Amino acid sequence: MSILDKDYLQWIKELSTRFRRSQVKASVRVNQVMLQFYWELGRDIVEKKAESRWGSGFMKNLSRDLKEVNPDATCFSETNLLYMKNFYLLYHPYLTITPQVVEQITQQAVEQKENSITPQLVEQIQNDLFSVPWGHHRFIIDKFKEHMSVKVRL
Questions:
Q1: Gyration radius of the chain over CA positions
Q2: Are the beta carbons of 88 and 126 closer than 8 angstroms?
Q3: Neighbour count for residue 55 (Cβ, 10 Å)
Q4: How many Å separate Cα 43 from the centre of its chain?
Q5: Is 32 exposed, middle or buried (0-12, 13-18, 19+ CB in 10 A)?
Q6: What distance in Å separates the CA atoms of residue 58 and residue 69, rounded to the nearest whole number?
Q7: Does the predicted TM-score (pTM) go above 0.70?
Q8: CA 54, 56, 57 angle in degrees (round to 5)?
C-alpha cells in the first residue's frame, strides 16, 4: 500500500468489499436476464411449433444460424436449445398469467375466501426461478425427465 494511514487502509478494505458485492449483484442480474431470454426462446420454440413447422433438423439449423449471427455467444448449442425448450415446458404452468388465468384465480379466491395465487406471487416465483443458475436448471430438467420416464414405464 502506498498510504499506510489506518483510516485509508480501512477505507480501501471497505471499498474492496463493496466492489465484490457489486460484482456478485451484477453477476446475479446478468444470470436473471439470460434466464429470461432462455425462457422466452423456449416459449417461442413451443408456441411457433417450430420443430413440426420447420422440420426434424430444426434444432440443428437454429443452433447453426444463431451461432453464425452471434459468433461470440456460447449458449446456442443444439443441446442447450433443447434445454431452453424444456425449461419453458417444465415451468410455464406456474409462470404464465393470462387474463383467463387471472379471472380463474379471482373466481377461485372468491369461492374459497382466500387469494392463494396472485399475479404478485407469480412474479415472485419468476424472480426466484430466474435467480437459480442455469446449470442447476439443467440438472432439475434432467431429473424431471428421468422421473417421468420411470413413471411412464410403470
A1: 22
A2: no
A3: 10
A4: 11
A5: middle
A6: 16
A7: yes
A8: 85
Q: At what angle do helices 78-95 and 58-69 cross, to 10 degrees?
A: 100
User: How many Cβ atoms sit within 10 Å of the Cβ of residue 130?
Assistant: 22
Alpha-carbon distance of 104 to 127, in angstroms, equals 23
All three cell numbers of 62, joined, read 437454429
Over the stretch 88-135, which tens digit does the pLDDT of each residue have?
999 988 776 655 555 665 666 556 555 566 777 777 888 888 989 999
Residue 122 DSSP label: H
Alpha-carbon distance of 104 to 110, in angstroms, equals: 10
Locate 149 and state its grid cell: 420416464
Mean pLDDT of 2-9: 88
First and final C-alpha spacing in the chain: 67
What string of DSSP letters covers 60-73? HHHHHHHHHH-TT-
